[in-house]
Amino acid sequence: MDTILVTGxxxxxxxxxxxxxxxxxxxxxxxxxxxxxxxxxVKERNLEAFRDHPRFSFYDMDITEGLEEVKxxxxxxxxxxxxxxxxxxxxxxxxxYIKANITGTQKVHEFMLERSxxxxxxxxxxxxxxxxxxKPFGEDDNVDNPISPYAFTKKxxxxxxxxxxxxxxxxxxxxxxxxxxxxxxxxxxxxxKFVKNIANDKPVVLFGDGSxxxxxxxxxxxxxxxxxxxxxxxxNTGLYTTVNLGNNKPVKLKDLVDAIYTGMxxxxxxxxxxxxxxxxxxxxxxxxxxxxxxxxxxxxxxATGIGKFIDWFITVGKEKKVNME
Length: 325
Known about the structure:
Elements: E1 3-7, H1 12-23, E2 27-32, H2 40-48, E3 56-60, E4 75-80, H3 87-92, H4 94-115, E5 119-125, H5 149-168, E6 171-177, E7 180-181, H6 190-199, E8 204-207, E9 213-214, E10 217-218, H7 219-235, E11 240-245, E12 251-252, H8 253-264, E13 270-273, H9 288-294, H10 302-319
Parallel strand pairs: 1-2, 1-4, 2-3, 4-5, 5-6, 6-11, 7-10, 8-13
Antiparallel strand pairs: 9-12
């Protein structure tokens, strides 16, 4: 049975990836260290859907200390999602981001070499583009001007992967994610924060004038892209490539908030504040390459995706099983 190792398996994206892999018949090894960036209970809930699955095994461990504890053999590929995420927190703790995202990736490479694993799907980020002037963002655009420690650690990961590919004939796909949202989204992200505030009749705080825009991508579309990228990686040799996984439809912040208020049937209550360091004006993915390589085709519009997130948030709140902070 084909076995895939997923780092960051208890996180937002990682848990959805595990569910899909298990549904496709794979044996899945999950690794996560429950980083205290947000409540452990959130990640524990993410694991509930598959932790007891007969084809899933879990290791509570920090990848920066190495992955020697993983005992399973014949691992076909690694999907490396584990990382410290977030632009603003990285400005407060650049050393922590360097350790988790750069040292952690090096430890994944070491593990792969020790086990003769030569297939890697890596989670990069649209943050590497910085304030890119060309729209939409293409994979061949210059990304030499990251504006946050988070962004430079993700670019560093891509460069490390190239060296790994070059020296050891590893097949690598770097996937640049664009503002992924949906059920289970991290509590520090904007959509989650906005819905929480509106549900509690608190104002929504917008940084800037609301004109900044993001290429919001629904979780199911991102995860299907990850799975298709994995299949492409498994079928090809001599592979090193970088691919955008976005929605190709940037939405202004003020329009996003309007959609959330409409979806929740609430009256707008908005407070404006200054733009935050590290924030970019827009993200906008050219997804032509993903479509051409492995048939990537995002299918969830913003209103539908926001509605699904609101339904999830309300359900979780009623169950009172998760600390939503």
